[in-house]
Each structure stands twice: as C-alpha cells, then as structure tokens.
C-alpha cells in the first residue's frame, strides 16, 4: 500500500450561511470550534443541508490519493450507527481500504458542520463523537507496516488515548507525514507538535498562519531559516501566494492558479496534500509534487465540499 491515513472519521454536513449567522452564534470565521452534541444540533436546527459526505481532513486526502489511482487505506473510529455505516460505505465507494471494525460505542459517529459564507470561507463546528476516542487498540500495526507512509492530522492529536494511538502509529511506520490542521490545534499543542516536526515526521504540511504560530515568529523569512535547519521536508501553503517546500538548503516555490471561480475553500489543504503526496510516493520531483498539489486544490475550491467527482 502506498499511504495509510489515520484521522478523525467525521461525517461532513455542509450548509450555506450569511455572515451574520457566524457572528450571531459567537463563531470566528474560517476557524474550527469543538462543540458538544447539543450545540451541534442547535446550530443545525435552523439550516438547510447542502450535502453530507464521509469527511475528516486526512480521509479527504486519502480519497484524493485513491482518485489518482494510488493504493490507499484509512483508520478512523466510528460508531456502529447509521452515520458510521454511511461513513464506511462512502470510503469503500472511493476504493479506500478501511482498517477499522466498528462496534457499538457510547458516543455517536463524529460530525462536522461546515458553514460556507458568501466569500467562500468555511467555518467549522465539530462534534468529535467517538472519532475523538481513538486509542492504541484501534491502530492496525500490520496495515501500518505494509504502507510506504502514514499520513496523520493534527486534529487527531490529543492528550491521553489519541496521543498513544498517534505514538504507536509513528513508531511502527516506515515514514510519517502530518498536517498541522488548524491554528487552533497548533496553539493548543505547540510543544508537542514542534517535537513531532523536529524529530518524528518526514513531511509536515502547514499553512502560513500555522507555521508562524508553531515556531513563534512574525516573518516568512524566519520560517525559511527554520526549515533550512530542520533537514526534514516542510510544505507550506500560502493562499494566493502559492506554496513553498523547504528541504535542507533547498527552497522550492510554486505559484497559485489565477482567475479561478472560487465556490468553497473546504478541502483545499486536504486535496493539496493529496496531490503533493501522490507526487512524493510516485517519485516525482518536489516542484512537480507542489504543482500536483496546486492542481488538486484548484479543482476542489471551484466546487462545494471536499471531494472531487
């Protein structure tokens, strides 16, 4: 297997809202907030659902990799409920091997409410449900050892059981890549994430905000200096400024695509990672991998949701 993703198994519920819905509900635009089931249902009660998809950041990347004809798998915890079944069916339909046997859990399958404002930005309210209770027993070591690389998400990292699951996965992997996921995650777990980036990961994916926060600097020049010292591959997306990969003394840049009709930024980072990892595991150059990531993210932001058809 080329890549095994390990992440939050979350069913995405996508809704369009006006800007005032964000402010009226005390949300911060373009960020992710963790909510409980009651708050999730309350927010959803006034909305029209556009689409429901088996999501989660790494799962989106893994589906993208599958669509590029790579042999891939996924580990993520769901409940044996209606949403859990939908989740599994959604992955199988995309030819992703699912390495998890669902059983009855106390908590229901995780869901993420994705609120799209008229400017195409997405604000997320996530009820992790049983996804956030992943533990080391949920990690299939054989699946990890039989993969060239594992791909993890910062959203999954948390003290206690999830951290143990994370550590077990990295310890048994041939190579590990991870996305920092969100500024909220970076701020919450800064020392741990920095340790992972410096010592455990072959590839780190971040956007500009996340990497600046992680290493406590103000300028992108300082990010470049940090990346050069690291001797690991760091891949940074910068929105309209394109993307940059840093490996030892090499800094490779790729422009963003211009004049796109942007509909929804959901999944832009996930599909960028899919394109880049496709290049990496198929031995393309770093420049070509950045170009593939850019191509995939350009396609996804011109449609609603985080899945290409």
Characterize the structure shown.
- The strands form two sheets. The protein has a nine-stranded mixed beta sheet with strand order 6-5-1-9-10-11-12-13-14, sandwiched between helices.
- The chain has helices at about 20-25, 35-45, 55-65, 80-95, 140-145, 160-170, 185-190, 190-200, 210-215, 220-230, 270-280, 285-300; strands spanning about 5, 10-15, 30-35, 50-55, 70-75, 95-100, 110-115, 120-125, 150-155, 175-180, 205, 235, 245, 250-255.
- It is of the alpha/beta class and about 300 residues long.
- It has a domain at about 5 and about 60-100 and about 135-300: Ribokinase (UDP-N-acetylmuramoyl-L-alanine:D-glutamate ligase).
- The chain is built from twelve helices and 14 strands.
- Helix 3 (about 55-65) packs across helix 11 and helix 11 (about 270-280) packs antiparallel against helix 12 (about 285-300).
- The chain starts with a strand and ends in a 9-residue tail after the last helix.
